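Session log. Operator J.P. requested a structure for one protein chain; no other inputs attached. Running the standard single-chain path with token output.
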Amino acid sequence: MGHMKRHGRGGRRNRLFDYGELRLLMLAMIAEKPRHGYDIIKALDERFEGNYTPSPGVVYPTLAWLEDMGYAVIEPDENNRKLSSITPEGEAFLTANQASVEDLLSRKAPAVKASDVPEDILLAMKSLKSALYDRLEEGDAGEAQIKEIAAIIDEAARKLAEQA
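Structure written below.
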């Protein structure tokens, strides 16, 4: 698709992580040392200078996925809190994806904080998001209409990128 490109590959990111990248980053973090879910949330918040803080609703299911895949084991610590540790399978997965891991570990916080975005732009973004959800909730958008909606958004992104 023509959506904004990943950082470092010729364009701006429309989000910090693409599909599966947070899983890989979290696995790398527990490879550094065993961690609790809260520790991962706090470490990511610090790493990205408060510009990205994953919710527990993202972190804990991701840890469960890593465990289901055999990449991590989750066991109670001495305080009966769940502690995630990497498995040999997880180590092998990190080794096989070393270039991606290095990219993720070197990734920096977004240059613009949400608090720096002018109110008019925030309202416009919320309006667009609401319109998209409303349209998609109707459930009758066909393949052609979905492509048309994506093209409209891509065109707006292209125009914004050209203004820079």
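Operator note: The radius of gyration is 19 Å.
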